[in-house]
Each structure stands twice: as C-alpha cells, then as structure tokens.
Write a structure and sequence with these properties.
Layout lengths: L1 H34 E3 L5 E3 L17 E5 L4 H11 L3 E6 L20 H4 L5 E5 L5 H13 L2 E4 L5 H5 L3 H7 L4 E6 L13 H7 L22 H22 L4 E5 H8 L1 H9 L9 H4 L21 E5 L10 E5 L5 H8 L13 H4 L3 H12 L4 H9 L5 E3 L3 H6 L1 H5 L3 E4 L7 E4 L22 H8 L4 H9 L14
Parallel strand pairs: 3-4, 3-6, 4-5, 6-7, 7-8
Antiparallel strand pairs: 1-2, 9-10, 10-11, 12-13
Helix pairs in contact: 2-8, 7-9, 8-9
The structure holds coenzyme A.
The site of coenzyme A has 23 residues, from helix 2, helix 5 and strand 7.
Amino acid sequence: MAKKKDKKAKKKDKASKAARKLELKVVAKKKAKAAGKAKSNGIVAFKRSTKPWGQDGKALDGVRILDFTHVQSGPTCTQLLAWFGADVMKVERPGVGDITRGQLQDVPNADSLYFTMLNHNKRSITLDSKSKQGMKVLERLVQTCDVLVENFAPGALDRMGLTWEHIHTLNPRMVVASVKGFGPGPYEDCKVYENVAQCAGGSASTTGFHDGPPLVTGAQIGDSGTGLHLALGIVAALYQRNRTGRGQRVLASMQDGVLNLCRVKLRDQQRLAHGPLKEYTQYGQGIPFGEAVPRAGNDSGGGQPGVILKCKGWETDPNAYIYFITQAPVWEKICDLIGEPGWKTHPDYAKPPARLPRLKEIFGRIEQWTMTMTKFDVMNACNALDIPVGPILSMKELAEEPSLRESGTIVEVDHPTRGKYLSVGNPIKLSDSISEVTRSPLLGEHTDEILSKVLKFTPREIAEIKASGATGEAPKAQAAE
Ligand code: COA
C-alpha cells in the first residue's frame, strides 16, 4: 500500500516537474518572442532592425531633461545628452537667457558662437523661476522630466525653492545632477570658472616649463571636462533607476574633474618619494627635484621621452612642429630613419637608460631630420614604420580637414540670425544612435510648445502664466505679479 502511495507521489512529482519545465519553456519562449527569436541553443537572436544601419532611434530616446544650465560646463553635458536623443528643455531667464548668448558676440544681434556651439539640439523655454507662476511651471517640469541638470552657484537652486527634498517629493524618479566648483569641504561655497578649476585641480601647477610660471591649457578641462563627467554620472543614475525606480543626486565638482584628468601627475607625485623622475627633461639636465611634481614642459606623460620638434617652414608658420616620442620599441626604426644606424648598437644610445642623460643631443639630431620635411611628410614617414608622432594641427587646419567633416566631428550648422557656422559635433560615435546636429534654440523659442504639448497646460492656464510675466514681458494691461 505504502509502496503504491510512494509510486503515486513520485509520479505526481514527476508530472509537476514536467509541467513546471513546460511552463518555464513557455515563459522563456514568450520572452524570447517579445525580444527577438529563440534559437535552439538557448541564445536569443534579436530581430534585426528594418531601418538602415544606425537609424533606429536614439540611445536616450524618451528621456526628458530639465536643463537649468548656463555658461559652459552644464550646457556641454546637456548637449551631449541631446545628441544621444534626450529631449532637452533649457530653462532661461526671460529677456536675458543664458549669459553666453551675448558674450563674445561676433555678429550683431545674433546669438554668439559661445552659446550656439554649446546648446545644439535643445529647446528653450523662458521662465522667471522666482515668480509664483514661474515656479508652478518649473514644478510641472520637475514632474514631467527624468533629469534636472544645473550648474548654478552653490545654494542657488535651494534659494529658488527647489531643494532636493522638494524635488524628490514632486518626482521620486528624478535624477538631479549638478556641477559645482568644489565638492564638500572648505571651498564648497565658492563660485568657479574654467581657469580657477584648472588651477585648483592640479593642472596649472603641472603645465608649463620648469623655469616658467604655471600655465592653463586651451582645452576646457574644467568646464567641458566636468560636463563630460556629469553626463556619465547621469547615464549611470538613469541605469540604476531602472532597478531601484528611484532618482538620485549626481555631483561633479570641477576640481575633482580636473584632478581626475591629472591622475598621472598624482602618480608622479608619489613616485618622487622613491627618487627623481628620470623621464623628465630636467633629470637629464641635472636640475634637482623639489617636493612637488614639477612642470614638465612638453615631456610625455606616459614615461617615454618626447618633445615638440621644428619642421620645414617653422620660421613663418607657428604650427610647423611635430610631437616626437622616442618610444623604446621603435628606437631602432627611428635610428634608421634619421640616418644614425650606428646608434642601434652604440652603448650610449642603444638602451633607454643610456639615452636619458643625452636626450637633448638625441632630439637635436632628430630635429635636424624633421626640419627637412613638412609635419605631414614627417607623419607619413613615421607612421609607415609604426612610429607614433603628432603633427601640431591649427584650428584652421582642423576646420578644413575633410575626414573630420565626413565623420561628423566638424559640422556646418545654419542659424536663422547668424547664418552658417562651424561647430564640433558629437565626438562620441554610437553605431546605432547617430547624432544629427541641429541649431541651438532662440531665446524662448519653444515656450508655447513646451507649456502646451509637454506640460499640458490648458489655454486658460497658459494665458494666466503669460499674463503674470513669468515667461517674459507681460502684456502691459494684464501684468499681475
Ligand atoms: N529666473 C530667475 N532667476 C534665475 C533664473 C531664472 N530663470 N536663472 C538663474 N537665476 C538666478 C539664480 O537663482 C541666482 O539667484 P540668487 O543668487 O539670488 O540665488 C542668480 O540667477 C545667479 O546665479 P549664479 O549661478 O550665481 O550666476 P553667476 O553668474 O553669479 O555665477 C557661476 C556664475 C558660473 C560662477 C556660478 O553659477 C557657479 O559657480 N556655478 C557652478 C560652477 C560652474 O558651473 N562653473 C563653470 C561655469 S562654465
């Protein structure tokens, strides 16, 4: 009897296991069908897009950004997100807008290149955030958007009434991303611009020549560099939100961003404790090291001796130069190329440590060779042998470079008030989310569109908002607030 029962139970168990297996199979099949196609080996083959390569939507399609940024750092970040397909709505002060609209103006009564080149692919809504109606619109924007990006002076957002707590209550899914000059600490309340960040983040103390003053670089590592950092933080926070359902704060401080980009100099600071930095030119010159990493001129940061050398035409062309690195793996090829085959085996030149005290003489000899050719000829000759060199390209040369136009890195954009101009397009290429660069918005160009189509205010509400002056100058008879 017991045996019979046991058999029955086993049979039942087997049947339920089989049913469960079938159920799992059906679920898996359904899932696979929803996503693509299930192959017999269990690997899901996603359906191929029917659209041409790279034309199937955008990476950040559906992400709405409340862009409360100005000047350079914040706008760099939101422009990148817009290029990846986010709907970026830039909130600007009525009548004034982002201060850069009027800075460094080259065409009268037209938005400056400073503004247009940092605000492509965005919409503009004008709002006085300090008015009652303006705040009503802002709060609706907070409820509608996924991300708020701002780079006001510390405390400005709180003073407007948009504290993190208030935003989080209005929309717990919202990511709130900020650029500030400094992170928490003694300088957290300071206002900061590009060069302040370069100086405070370690770049200036390590840029320039050993016997000269600190220098800032032309690359906007404080502003645009921090904007880039912030964009990555936002995308990461959005990804985490998929799991938690919750927004979070993202902070990118300009000092932190610059220091991150100066990482190799903090490396060298610690190496100093164990002896002189032998790859620095000053070592070969017999100049002692102090307590802090010195400025290293044009020395290569990677530890391979490198300098900028003159090329043909240097007497009249300020950019007829090339960066040359005496990389150990290609040393023998360099010797052949410059006509010094004997150096390949000579004890003073064959090995990197032997070369270190003789770098001035060695680079002097290489320069004799580079001066016989244009920088492009040097580049061709070296690259044919896998010797990496860097021609000093001017902005003019870059603007005219056909391959950069073809890749969309340099784009020509048309603008209603300034006409055609060149800009740097999206430097990050996604194969399935290609960026088209569209012109920057005129001040308040999309105010009506955003109020009605995005925020769904009724015509009566819109009339009320406008009459209050919150979006610009109020009609005189009705000015209320
Ligand atoms: N309606 C009403 N008021 C607005 C507004 C709007 N739409 N937009 C901004 N404002 C107000 C702010 O609320 C603030 O008012 P408050 O000082 O009374 O609180 C005021 O405008 C000025 O903002 P602020 O950010 O202080 O501008 P600023 O021109 O004085 O300073 C920076 C500019 C860049 C120095 C400063 O914003 C900053 O340090 N930002 C962080 C670091 C940064 O991004 N720096 C690099 C910029 S490229």
